[in-house]
Structure formats: structure tokens, C-alpha cells
Write a structure and sequence with these properties.
The chain is elongated, with a radius of gyration of 16 Å. Strands 1-2-3 form a 3-stranded antiparallel beta sheet, with no helix packed on it. It has a domain of about 30 residues: N-terminal domain of TfIIb, CATH 2.20.25.30. About 5% of the residues lie in helices and about 10% in strands. By secondary structure, the protein is mostly loops. The mean pLDDT is about 90. The termini are far apart. The protein is built from 1 helix and 3 strands.
């Protein structure tokens, strides 16, 4: 068994992110049950910061 390029194709079997119901982006984490873009699942407020532009 090699640790390089040939074994990298065997890693991607499970989905971690699916489409978010609130923002529509593919950033909703299935196991965490939280969207990394808009914060859906964690909070009722929209996830935003002063240093970012949406």
C-alpha cells in the first residue's frame, strides 16, 4: 500500500457538505448539522462579520 497519489482516489467516499436550505450554497455540514456560510443550524441570525463582504 502506497501513501501517495494512488491512495488519494480511495479517500473521497463520503459526503461532508450538501446544499444549504437557507443560503443555497453547498456548505451545510451533514455531521455537524451546521452551514459554514450562513450559520443555519447553529443560530437563527445570519452569520456575518464586519471584516467580510457578502
Amino acid at each position: 500500500m502506497t501513501k501517495g497519489t494512488s491512495s488519494m482516489g480511495k479517500r473521497s467516499g463520503k459526503k461532508t457538505h450538501i446544499r444549504c436550505r437557507r443560503c443555497g450554497k453547498r456548505t451545510y455540514h451533514i455531521r455537524k448539522k451546521k452551514c459554514s456560510s450562513c450559520g443555519y443550524g447553529a443560530t437563527a441570525r445570519l452569520r456575518k462579520f464586519t471584516w467580510q463582504k457578502k
